[in-house]
C-alpha cells in the first residue's frame, strides 16, 4: 500500500503502531504533552488518515477505536522511495555517495551495509 504521510501523520501513526488500537481520547492524552494537539486536531487527522486508507475504526459504544491499516514497513518503503526520488533523482548510489562524502556513516553502518549488499548479491531475502 502506497500512502504518503505528512510529518504530523507520522507522529499519529507511530502512536497507533505502538498499541493495539486507540480511542480519540487515548490518543489525545498520549500525544498532548509532545505535540500540544487538541482532540479536534486528532479527529481531523484521523479522518484524513482514514480517507487515505491508512487507518480504520471500530465502534465501541460512543467511542471509536482506531487501528492502522498501513504497516510501518509499507510507510517506510514509500517514504524512502519518495525521498530518494525527490532528493537524489531515484539514485541510491548518489545518496550513498553523499553519505560517504559527508562522513555520516560509522564503521558499524558500513559493516551492516556490506552485509546487506552481500545478501542481495546472493539473492537472499532480507
Describe the structure concisely for a colleague:
It is elongated, with a radius of gyration of 19 Å. It is built from six helices and three strands; from the N terminus they run H-E-H-H-E-E-H-H-H.
Using the CA coordinates, give the radius of gyration: 19 Å
**CATH architectural category of the largest domain:** Orthogonal Bundle
Task: Provide the structure class.
Answer: mainly alpha
Q: What percentage of amino acids are in beta strands?
A: 5-15%
Compute the separation of the termini in Å. 19 Å
Order of helices and strands: HEHHEEHHH
For the record, what CATH class of the largest domain applies? Mainly Alpha
Give an overview in words:
The chain has 126 residues and is mainly alpha-helical. The protein has 2 domains: 1-90, Winged helix-like DNA-binding domain superfamily/Winged helix DNA-binding domain (Arc Repressor Mutant, subunit A, Orthogonal Bundle), CATH 1.10.10.10; 91-126. It has helices at 7-17, 24-35, 39-51, 72-88, 92-101, 107-122, and strands spanning 22-23, 55-60, 63-68. A 3-stranded antiparallel β-sheet has the order 1-3-2. The longest helix has 17 residues, at 72-88. It starts with 6 loop residues before the first helix and ends with a helix. The mean pLDDT is 91.
